[in-house]
Design brief:
Belongs to the zinc-containing alcohol dehydrogenase family. The protein contains 13 helices and 15 strands. Helix 7 links the parallel strand 9 and strand 10. It folds into 2 domains: 211 residues, Quinone Oxidoreductase, Chain A, domain 1 (Alpha-Beta Complex), CATH 3.90.180; 166 residues, 3-Layer(aba) Sandwich (Rossmann fold), CATH 3.40.50.720. It binds nicotinamide-adenine-dinucleotide and zinc ion (2 copies). The site of one zinc ion (ZN) has 9 residues, from helix 2.
């Protein structure tokens, strides 16, 4: 089959690799109809997380079941499915508690949590390819209505829609709450969409990319909420949010940027977004950190950050009594309900899609997405191996 293969930082190729097959009784093989490029894919792409050469990339996958192993009985050949990016066993202590993001059995390295085509998440190939092997298929796969309707909405169910939603869950967004979201990348935009659906009364989205901020302004239109875009290249963001909330600050803050947070000139400051959030979230408010931070980052901008030590203003966070939730999103916790919101027309996460291309165009799409080229917000790849 054809697949997007990682060779070295900034070097990918679309090439022929072995077809995945059913290896264990509980496996399924999916024919991929859509696989997205994610901001997380840029970590290995830029060499900021070490990935083994030869790995097939892609953890945002959906498609049609091509084959199932003899132990699979819920999922059938021909089913249309979404594949959560967390690859989980379904029976360990964390999985049974609903924390598939920290499965204790799926990652042979011993680190809790496994995934497809990603550093330190196990040996599993990704789905930016014609086919994908899915272990523990009955547990992991989410059924979708058959056909092709809502393809570019449903494709957000494998990761970023649940991840944005998880950010708002950790930040305890509820009806009437005020919310500040840092990062207007796909995850931040999904957090804004989720905050609106959850009934927030006021949502700010901060970034320095004008094209992404324009999308942020639409994130609440489904429910009639006007989202306020804050351009960090032009404004003092803390002042803008404090002024916009009559000096109170917001109830809830979502971090959707991660360890490569930078100023408008591109200079990285690993703690800047966390510091900003500690300032704008009111005392006893809540913070959801879904942007990724790494235990090791040899290319980090500060010495401590090379070892995962991000020196943010924890003193003020403590004094204000903020709660802080972090981590990978346990996609299965939310994906059924978010699917049904799409089917019922309440959510339409596809508003962020900027490009839909064939697998052969993946190398160029990665380059443009990595450069944050104007208008490259979310790229969907269609392998189309019918
Ligand atoms: N927790 C999870 O389960 C999970 C899942 C998916 C992605 N992620 C992570 O979420 C983060 C965002 O993902 P994405 O796909 O949206 O990535 P992205 O890189 O496309 O978006 C990040 C955005 O942050 C903006 N930004 C950078 N510095 C900023 C600052 N100081 N203030 C405001 N905005 C700033 C950038 O301009 C960019 O638009 C990444 O760290 C990604 O790895 C986490
Ligand atoms: Zn992703
Ligand atoms: Zn498990």
């Amino acid at each position: 089959m054809k697949a997007v293969v990682f060779k070295a930082p900034y070097e990918l190729s679309v090439e022929e690799v072995a077809d995945p097959r059913v290896e264990e009784p509980l496996d399924a093989v999916i024919r991929i109809t859509t696989a997205n490029i994610c901001g997380s894919d840029l970590h290995p792409y830029e060499g900021r997380a070490e990935l083994e050469p030869g790995m097939v990339l892609g953890h945002e996958n959906m498609g049609v079941v091509e084959e199932v192993g003899p132990g699979v009985n819920r999922i059938k050949k021909g089913d249309r499915v979404s594949v959560p990016f967390n690859l989980a066993c379904g029976t360990c202590r964390n999985c049974t508690a609903g924390w598939t993001s920290a499965c204790l059995r799926a990652n042979p390295s011993g680190q809790p949590g496994a995934g497809y085509g990603y550093p330190n998440m196990g040996p599993y190939w990704g789905g930016q390819a014609e086919y994908l092997r899915v272990p523990w298929a009955d547990f992991n796969l989410l059924h979708l209505p058959e056909g092709t309707e809502h393809e570019s909405d449903f494709t957000m169910l494998s990761d970023i829609f649940p991840t944005g939603y998880h950010g708002t869950e950790l930040a305890q967004v509820a009806p009437g709450k005020t919310v500040a979201i840092f990062g207007a990348g796909p995850v931040g935009l999904m957090a804004a969409h989720s905050a609106a659906i959850r009934g927030a009364s006021q949502v700010f989205v901060v970034d320095h990319q004008p094209d992404r901020l324009r999308l942020a302004e639409q994130a609440g239109s489904k429910v009639g909420l006007e989202v306020t875009a804050v351009n960090a290249a032009e404004t003092d963001v803390v002042e803008a949010i404090m002024d916009g909330t009559d000096g109170f600050g917001v109830d809830c803050g979502v971090e959707a940027v991660g360890y490569q947070a930078h100023d408008a000139s591109g200079q990285e400051h690993p703690a800047m977004v966390l510091d900003n959030l500690v300032q704008v979230v009111r005392a006893t408010g809540h913070l959801g950190v879904v942007g990724v931070y790494m235990p090791e980052d040899p290319d980090a901008a500060t010495e401590p950050a090379k070892e995962g030590r991000v020196a943010f203003d924890f003193g003020s966070a403590f004094t204000k009594g903020l709660s802080i939730g972090t981590g990978q999103c346990p996609v299965k916790r939310y994906n059924q309900e978010l699917r049904d919101l799409i089917i019922r027309g309440v959510a339409s996460p596809s508003f962020i899609v900027s490009h839909e291309v064939a697998l052969d165009e993946a190398v160029d799409a990665y380059k443009k997405f990595d450069e944050r080229a104007d208008g490259y917000t979310k790229v969907l790849l269609h392998p189309d191996a019918a």
